[in-house]
Amino acid sequence: MDDHVFNPPVSMPTPENNQSSPELQAIVSVRNVQLPSGAIAPNIWLEAKEQPALASVSLWLRNDFTSAASQDALDDSTVHYGELSKRVRAACSNEEGQRSALNAIFQAAEHMARKPKPEGDKFVAKRIAARLTLPKASAFGEGLSMSEVRLYSEKGERTGGFRTFVCKDLRVPTLIGVNAYERKGRQPVVVNFAVDFADEAGSPEEEMKLLFPLERELAGIVERTEFETLETLVDHTLKEIRPVFEARGIKPWVVHLKFEKPCAVPFADAPVIEVHRRWN
Description:
Layout: H1 3-6, E1 27-34, E2 39-42, E3 48-51, E4 54-61, H2 66-71, H3 81-91, H4 95-99, H5 101-113, E5 114-115, E6 122-123, E7 125-134, E8 143-152, E9 158-174, E10 187-198, H6 204-211, H7 214-223, H8 230-248, E11 254-260, E12 272-278
Helix pairs in contact: 3-5, 7-8
């Protein structure tokens, strides 16, 4: 669900939508780097514990890597993804890195994006996205994750960005369906839920404490329903989650919600209903 952080669709309301799109966008990424010391984050009982963690990072290059491609050799037009992976692991290997893993990932990426020159440093990335995934932090799904996008000037100064919290592939049993046989008992519904925040949000550690309880709240909302359609379930969930946001002082920018019924259609993976809603 937080793929929009790494591969945003044209229609996705990101801070970059007001900028003209280049004909060719060059991106260098490493995905799901295993952090050697894990990360300290809330577990399923919301206690801060060291646990396995995966890091992903993407750098949107300011220009394409034409010179590296033409020479078939790495140069300052691109980023060495092998070195990037090593620096991410190294940056997150000490206790400070564990506690601020997302910031440590950015430190490694920003170091790789800065190319020293006699006439002044060159910063080759205009946008960097980093994601910290915690597979053991989810009680019902494949993991919880915190992602962040940072925008940069040509000198490497931050100019904006946003953060995203994701509950991935929660499997929640609920009574759902229009067919008579579907009213006989619950079936699994797969829920993906993401919340975008403006750049002025708090630290990743503060956000984890605030946001990780949303998984149980979301699962409880879905489990208690008995609707016939996914459309109604989506609309109901968005209405029910609003007072939860308000009670916890959560002020989203955009909320993303996707429901799948994997058992509903015999010869398809699943029917899917998905919404992306600006929140105010």
